[in-house]
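Would you kindly consider the sequence and fold I have copied below?
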Amino acid sequence: MRRRLLALICVTGSLVSACGLLPGDDEPKTVTVWLMKDSASKEFLQRFTEDFERTHKDLRLDIRIQEWTGIVEKVRTALKAGSGSGPDVIEVGNTQVPLYADGGRLADLTLESMRDWGKEKWLPGLAQPGKDGNKQYGIPWYAANRVVIYRKDLFEQAGISSPPKTREAWLADTERLNSGGNQGIYLAGQDWYTLSGFIWDEGGDLAEEKDYEWRGALDSPAALRGMDFYRRLQALGEGPADADEEHPPQAGVFAGGKVAQIVAVPGLAQSIVRQNPDLKDELGYFPVPGRTAERPGTVFTGGSDLVIPQNTDDQFSATAVVAALTGAKWDTELARTMNYVPNKTTLAGAVASEEGVAAMAAGAAHGRATPHSPQWADVEADNLIKEYMTRVLGGADPAVEARRASRKITEALAPNVG
């Protein structure tokens, strides 16, 4: 955005901006960037800003940190604002892109993605939800996904010398671990993100689009096989059938001892060790196992994409910022700084030295995201999948409950479909 301002460098928890007195007509243009709280450290943003402004002398950055709470309505309002009155670049959750792309309020970055940014190497769990049809609106920035965090000492006591690489081996090992007062695994009954991976591995999905209409798909044979595996695994511990992984927080349960494994992002280990320092040297990580040893299991990929509002008055400058942030140099720097997975499978080597992040990167290569319907948030808000899981784990007929849940998902995604 074109502004005649005195800019100053100020790195705080809420703002990174440019600084220095600038001459009249040669004054650089300011690009306003919204990034989410804790996505990047202040030190990273300062290094990036200094490097970007040094290599783009006609531009200055005004990076404004946003809170996740209430961000959807804030972004929606910004996208509807007059030209040049809102941010030029926005960080959004990868699964939120369809919500913002609906109505044509995001800039189409398909050409840049294909010509300059190597989209064929992007993590699928970040790239796919950033698309609408053949158009690319969200540009992958960083990813995070679940792995298995395990107790090395309990594995050793059970005679397990190395982590399992197939789902059936995982079940067998977990059954061995589920003895002597120990839980083989703590898996809450409503951890639907973990369930999603098992469904995807079987070739199913949570919902499917056909003829531009979305329908729930939990009742497909593949999805039912995924739920059956979840049921068998979840039974090898004492996870509650009627709660998710945050009720109670599974880090506290794991820290309390007597639990051999949990499925979580590697960063949760920090909370575990804070609550039980004795576990500092006992924690290990491995990718969620797949159906065969040739590749890890499919996992839900969380993370962020960068988008450019259609109402920016300087798409060229905004594109330069996106190119720099998501390019190999700064994307790998961010991954190393924040223990993320870089946005391309070819950059996974940048985090190979960190066991937890390396396990995460292996899974991210086969990651997926939730169905890219703008109405998917309604499915999550109503806990439709969680309700289904609890019913099945409580002994209800899986096929009956899957049909019931699929009908409800269809109603949420496509109310006009019978």
Q: What stands out?
A: Confidence is low (pLDDT under 50) at residues 1-24. The chain has 17 helices and 15 strands.
